[in-house]
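Recall the central idea of this unit: under ordinary conditions, the amino acid sequence of a chain determines the structure it adopts. In this exercise we apply that idea directly, starting from the sequence alone.
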Amino acid sequence: MDRADIAGIVSTQRAFFNTGKSKDLSFRIAQLALLRKIIDDNEDAICEALKLDMNKPKFEAYVGEIAMVTNEIDYAIRHLKSWARPKRVMTPLVHFPARSHIYSEPLGVVLIIGTWNYPIQLVLCPLVGAMAAGDSSILKPSRMAPHTADLIARMMTENFDPGLLAVVQGGSEAVNTLLENQLDHIFFTGGTSVGRIIAEAAARKLTPVTLELGGKSPCLVDREVHLDYAARRITWGKFFNAGQTCVAPDYLMVHTSIKNEILEHIRGYIGEFYGEDPHNSPDYARIINDKHFDRLSGLLEEGDILIGGKTNSADKYIAPTVIDNVSWDHKIMQEEIFGPLLPVIEYEDLAQAVSTINRHPKPLSFYLFSTNKGTQERVLKETTSGGCTINDTIVHLSTQTLPFGGVGESGIGKYHGQASFDIFSNKKSVLYRSFLLDLKLRYAPYGNKLPWVKKLLRYFG
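Accordingly, the structure predicted from this sequence is:
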């Protein structure tokens, strides 16, 4: 697709948006309902595409992709009228007689750039927010999951007006061409390095961005913990989708006194989840491509492998792996892992552990396992992260009432539920004045009015 084609798509979307059709709430709800029906009708096709792209088990395809989107749609349909209703806010008495409202209006034409690890969820969940807000949307699915990208293009093209929703396929060239056009918002999910490129291109046109990035999400395990439950939940969260989850626990920081015991529990649960040889498990995904397989295989060269470590390049298989005796100088601790490798670092003092975590970039997610309420409050107070789950992993991501997103290098902006609607909306401030009264105090000539104005602002401003 060349520059002219993409410029034509943006122009078509702009023209459709300018008709005002998508501002109508009933139209938005109808489009959301249509999106829900399309996903329901294509459930098997979605699961098959995800299987072909990364051997994603049907259970994980449904729970981690399909249900995430359909729950977002259902939640948006239920609450959209309330979200879109003008909100009355307090007006200072100095403006009497007047009233103030905040109106939510669509931004215009938005670009949503997805990524490969959850190629359905991470394109369509943002789309729900854009559609609810009344925007026209251009979707750019990841070419690294080609079967899923083709399916998204087919589903959307066959069912939606191209002025409301269009799909552009391709690689970095397509993205660069899209960024040359004037857009009203860019929503990007992916790595930090590409996020910087997106932000730089957007800044040249003063286009606002949402960047859903990643980073090294710590999993801190206190000595006061339910070891069995903690191990089971950590194992699930880390190796779901073969570790290719932006909010997966990136490394385990565990108290010295319970380290050996919890690692044995994790060993047991890896066997329970995936069998003696996870390579033969129907419930274990594969690495997305050779490039990522080679990168992850290289990370196995440092530290001591306690569990797993087996690889198969022909199948892009890397076993669920736990690595001990890892230091912060090792390569595995220098970058987000994004795969089924769990390095372990032990600690003795909580203050030291928190200080170590805080010396590194603010993570997208933070996981704390502790039954001690004081420890929970202390860690929440002394650390910063995009989101946090206490005594579990990942699940805060699937809660519509909790805005999801990063902080600092792990991202800009939050979405899910109402936060998705808000991020794709312009919050227009409107003040209504009455003609019942018009004091001359603010008008020239000013003379000796300033002392009175100061008093008025002090008491009624």
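Residues 58-84 form the longest helix (27 residues).
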